[in-house]
User: Fold this.
Amino acid sequence: MFRTLVPALAITLATAFSAMAEPVRFAVTDIEGLEALQQEFGGFQKALEEKTGLDIELIPVSSRTAAVEAMNAGHVELVLTGPAEYVVMKQLSDPRIVVAWQRPDYFAQVAVLANGPIRTLNDLKGKKIAFGAVGSTSQHLGPAQALADQELIYGKDYEGVIIARNVAAEALIRGDIAAIGLNFGHLNSIRKAFPDAAFAVVARGRDLPNDILVARKDVPEEVFVKVREAFLKHGNELMGAVLMGEDNQKFKGGVFITDVKDSDYDYVRSMYRTIGIESFGSFVE
Assistant:
């Protein structure tokens, strides 16, 4: 009996150590190229390695669709993504939630010219409203939902157009559009870019669900636990490493939230329905 147990135990331990020895590959859906990924997350990579004892490898992906394909093909274990992307990723890959990454002041707004003709939401009826990237949580879905919450129906009470943020600001100043849908940080950047123009907010949505780190559904349990516990026990240190990236300043003042579940993103699903998307099997293009 003892002789048969020893080989079995050896196999079990070898399998476990093999799983732990394999690099854990980490991707981010909104950063293209390895150089940019290293600049933003190189410090975090080292910190996560230190806190987990795992070999963390940064893997660039060219798009959110590519991230799903990489996950389904077994080419990445961890993906950091936005709330709108998560909803589709959940449908296509059924990943496990590791931890949410809070973004303070992460909410959608609809801005107009402070000295322009739009004074109330009713003034927007029949007008053109610009949104940012198609399918963006805070530049498209969120602003549309903020208007829907005030009973302005997307595609019926107003015309939604997709225009890049600074181009939209110029169009607003010229009078070609009536309003812009965007998030708090983007409005601040527009105010800096166009100091001679004054903007006012006519609609503000609730705080948006957080960005979220997910793990491939078949990631070894010991890897999943090690990564999750690192955020539980060393959240402040890991956030400090995240903030070494310039673009990651959006997380400044935020925390990692481990008490998060899929239903927390039902608000995002309602946003998709607001713009006429009833199923979540593909990204909005």
